[in-house]
Write a structure and sequence with these properties.
mainly alpha, two-stranded antiparallel sheet
Amino acid sequence: MNYLLDYYNEIQKGNIVVGKELFTVIESLINDMENPTYIFDEKPGNIRIEFIEKFCKHTKSPFNGQPFLLELWENAVLQAAYGFKMADMKLRRFNEVLLLIARKNGKTTFIAGIDLT
């Protein structure tokens, strides 16, 4: 499943509201899926998504002990960060990702799950 494309489609439908900058970046990534300079592979991102949703649990009430289910934007971030590779060298396109997320949105658990994979 291509979460990045699903996220883009939900934005296009108006179900998800994002700023201009984020929309521009997502639109660029969607266009790069067809760019021969890059290869997009869903598998590296999906490995991390499956790991986080299977092994990571919430640690605070009211969700303590329940599985950490990722939202669509989190799935899209993981697939974009780990899925794009340079076509000629097969190395990852992105080595760093900057996430600007408001407080109390599960940043610590999300990043901890990524670190564990």
